[in-house]
């Protein structure tokens, strides 16, 4: 029965898009690049519980993401040193992966396997009136992780 559910789930990956399973950007836990990594910061990040945290531009919105902070990047830091988030992201420079919201989930799984990444930003074209510019600007509308795809495979709905 479990096998049947998983095979059905795997087959359905080509019928669903990234946007169907992503976490919308307004629900994403982010930190700002200019924040100080003090006890309060450590507490908030620890409470949020996410292993991967998108980093936003100073003064930016949740969709203005400039980097990625891994929870594990913090283990060697002393909260008394008042290190700034950007110092850490500039040191590790974790690559940000970006995909279109219309990508099919089977292709998304391949992208994750190819890049050895677990999280990707999801973007959509910015609506600019009537214009249909093929090189239209894009904005981040969500994040997707490997877990979001695995859930589609193993979950009976
Ligand atoms: P891991 O299990 O590798 O420790 P995690 O628990 O931080 O990672 P995932 O298991 O990759 O996160 O994802 C679980 C769910 O949480 C997914 O729906 C994913 O989209 C969402 N998610 C991951 N990171 C964040 C974040 N920073 N803010 C909000 N949601 C997130
Ligand atoms: P992440 O990529 O989310 O940071 P990770 O690199 O710690 O996680 P996984 O990607 O889950 O680990 O697993 C990669 C490989 O490392 C797997 O083969 C897994 O079994 C192995 N692995 C994970 N944790 C440990 C550990 N503590 N000791 C030895 N091997 C581990």
Structure description:
- This protein is globular.
- The chain has a four-stranded mixed β-sheet. The protein has a three-stranded mixed β-sheet with strand order 2-4-5. It has a two-stranded antiparallel ribbon with strand order 3-6.
- With 157 residues, it is α/β, with parallel strands linked by helices.
- The longest helix is centred in the last third of the chain and has 11 residues, at 105-115.
- The model has no long low-confidence stretch (mean pLDDT 93).
- The protein has helices spanning 2-11, 18-21, 39-48, 85-92, 105-115, 146-154; strands at residues 23-24, 31-32, 36-37, 52-56, 65-70, 83-84, 98-100, 119-125, 138-145.
- 33% of the residues lie in helices and 24% in strands.
- The protein contains six helices and nine strands.
- β7, α5 (105-115) and β8 form a beta-alpha-beta unit.
- The protein binds adenosine-5'-triphosphate (2 copies).
- One adenosine-5'-triphosphate (ATP) is lined by residues 23, 27-29, 50-53, 118, 143, 145, 147-148.
Shape: globular
The radius of gyration over CA amounts to 18 Å
With strands numbered from the N-terminus, the spatial order across the biggest sheet is 1-9-8-7
* Helical/strand content category: alpha/beta
Helix content range: 25-40%
**Overall pLDDT confidence:** 93
Structure summary, number of beta strands: 9
The total of helices stands at: 6
What's the SSE pattern? HHEEEHEEEHEHEEH
Bound molecules: adenosine-5'-triphosphate
Ends distance: 14 Å
Report the biggest beta sheet as strand number plus sense, adding barrel if it closes.
4 strands, mixed
Query: How much strand?
Result: 15-25%
Unreliable segments of 5+ consecutive residues: none
């Amino acid at each position: 029965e479990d096998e049947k559910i998983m095979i059905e789930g795997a087959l359905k990956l080509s019928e669903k898009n990234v946007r169907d399973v992503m976490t919308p950007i307004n629900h994403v836990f982010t930190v700002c690049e200019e924040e100080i990594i003090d006890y309060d910061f450590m507490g908030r990040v620890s409470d949020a519980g996410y292993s991967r945290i998108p980093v936003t531009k100073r003064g930016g919105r949740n969709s203005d993401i400039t980097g990625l902070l891994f929870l594990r990047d913090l283990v060697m830091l002393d909260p008394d040193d008042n290190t700034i988030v950007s110092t850490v992201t500039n040191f590790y420079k974790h690559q940000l992966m970006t995909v279109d919201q219309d990508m099919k989930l089977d292709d998304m799984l391949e992208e994750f396997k190819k890049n050895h990444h677990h999280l990707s930003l999801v973007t959509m074209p910015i609506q600019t009136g009537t214009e249909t510019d093929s090189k239209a600007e894009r904005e981040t509308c969500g994040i997707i992780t490997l877990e979001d795809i695995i859930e589609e495979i193993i979950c009976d709905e």
